[in-house]
Amino acid sequence: xxxxxxxxxxxxxxxxxxxxxxxxxxxxxxxxxxxxxxxxxxxxxxxxxxxxxxxxxxxxxxxxxxxxxxxxxxxxxxxxxxxxxxxxxxxxxxxxxxxxxxxxxxxxxxxxxxxxxxxxxxxxxxxxxxxxxxxxxxxxxxxxxxxx
Length: 148
Description:
There is one protein chain. The chain is mostly beta strands. The protein has a single domain (4-141), classed as Lipocalin (Beta Barrel). It has strands at residues 4-15, 18-33, 36-44, 51-58, 62-69, 73-78, 82-89, 92-107, 112-122, 125-138. The chain has a ten-stranded antiparallel beta sheet with strand order 6-5-4-3-2-1-10-9-8-7, with no helix packed on it. Strand 9 and strand 10 (125-138) form a beta hairpin. The protein is globular and about 40 Å long.
């Protein structure tokens, strides 16, 4: 895998029978160390000055997303475990918990796919069942639409 990548992130949040979809496609950097994958990218929030630096660390059993900047958080998804986090935004902080249901990482010579399912709690109340999919490819290869 090359250092310069395109990252596609799609997410589905199911709350009280309602679906909320997100999709992000952005350029980033990739490297691996040991048996872990690291993806770095910057996130710009519309209507706000500044940005958030994101580091995704994916290993055999855990997915960790660290955000620094406009928003600050360390979010961990680990199958069968509940991890608490404080999600700091320019508007205030939220107490979150993520309980991992599934985590799958697939690798080929041209791409890395990550799929995580988790239950999201806010202030100790179940808010949503979430699925997040990430596709990491060399920048020159373009990106895969993960909605299919």
